From TrEMBL:
<dbReference type="InterPro" id="IPR010982">
    <property type="entry name" value="Lambda_DNA-bd_dom_sf"/>
</dbReference>
<protein>
    <submittedName>
        <fullName>Transcriptional regulator with XRE-family HTH domain</fullName>
    </submittedName>
</protein>
<dbReference type="InterPro" id="IPR001387">
    <property type="entry name" value="Cro/C1-type_HTH"/>
</dbReference>
<dbReference type="InterPro" id="IPR043917">
    <property type="entry name" value="DUF5753"/>
</dbReference>
<dbReference type="Pfam" id="PF19054">
    <property type="entry name" value="DUF5753"/>
</dbReference>
<dbReference type="Pfam" id="PF13560">
    <property type="entry name" value="HTH_31"/>
</dbReference>
<feature type="domain" description="HTH cro/C1-type">
    <location>
        <begin position="16"/>
        <end position="70"/>
    </location>
</feature>
């Protein structure tokens, strides 16, 4: 059973869409039978909005799904009604980013490339504060920092996320928040890279051109095979989740290539430590 309501909602959406298609029903026909608008059913099937357990039961009856299979899906729908911790920060987290945090909270594996800044899961409090100050201003600053630090619990939970990070060497050299903040941040990354679930690769400038020059990314994979992998892209004002298997495969190949082009993990830690000394 998945723990994140975001992942549960995504599971229900996919199951309902597949069951409707298997039953040979169009969105129009199913929506009329369920006494809802076509647009609402479409949004449910795309995980844009949730669905109440009683409506899931009605949909399953329409698609002739009964017994244990139906009860299992209804139980997942009940879980999707729960609140994730990140919803307590909805005043400072945009809805599109709440969706990502909900996926991240359940992910078994995260693979990411960052060109400009340290990934949120590896940021120190001081570094995170300066990043938010520069990119979003002072409003809600401390709550944004608190939410970012709370996200990092996925690295310390009982079954921690397996994190693979490729960092452009520029991240090590750009002085965010001043020398003391950078020295602390780089030392923190060198230390956390010793954890069995965290691998950091530094992509040096000498590697030259590489296949991720146009975009940072996060690839999320889940322990349950029923939850399909996702590629997540974002910018200052929106996020985009790519669920098509071809996209996931393409970004996975890019990540593999970046890891081959980067310094190996041991040399990457040495590079982090050297960069930290330069800021000390």
């Amino acid at each position: 059973m998945t723990a994140s309501p975001t992942v549960r909602r995504r599971r229900i959406a996919r199951e309902l869409r597949q069951l409707r298609e298997r039953a040979g029903m169009t969105l129009d026909v199913a929506a009329r039978q369920l006494d809802m608008s076509k647009s609402n059913l479409s949004r449910i099937e795309n995980a844009q909005i949730g669905i109440k357990p009683r409506d899931v039961r009605a949909a399953l009856a329409l698609y002739a799904v009964t017994g244990a299979d139906a009860e299992a899906l209804i139980e997942i729908a009940r879980g999707a009604q729960q609140r994730g911790w990140w919803q307590n920060y909805s005043d400072v987290l945009p809805e599109w980013f709440e969706f990502y945090v909900g996926l991240e909270a359940e992910a078994a594996t995260l693979r990411t490339y960052e060109a400009e800044s340290v990934p949120g899961l590896l940021q120190t409090e001081a570094y995170a504060r300066e990043i938010y100050r520069r990119t979003a201003g002072e409003e809600g600053l401390e709550r944004k920092v608190a939410a970012r630090l709370r996200r990092q619990e996925v690295l310390r939970r009982e079954s921690p996320v397996q994190l693979s990070v490729v960092l452009n060497e520029a991240v090590l050299l750009r002085p965010v928040g001043g020398a003391a903040v950078m020295a602390e941040q780089l030392t923190h990354m060198a230390r956390i890279a010793q954890s069995p679930n965290v691998t950091i690769y530094v992509l040096p400038f000498t590697a030259g051109a590489h296949p991720a020059m146009s975009t940072p990314y996060v690839i999320l994979q889940f322990a349950d095979a029923a939850d399909a992998s996702v590629v997540y892209l974002d910018n200052l004002t929106m996020g985009l989740a790519l669920e098509d298997a071809g996209h996931v495969r393409g970004y996975s190949l890019v990540h593999e290539e970046l890891c081959h082009m980067a310094l190996d993990p041991a040399d990457s830690v040495a590079r982090l430590e050297a960069a930290s000394r330069n800021f000390a």
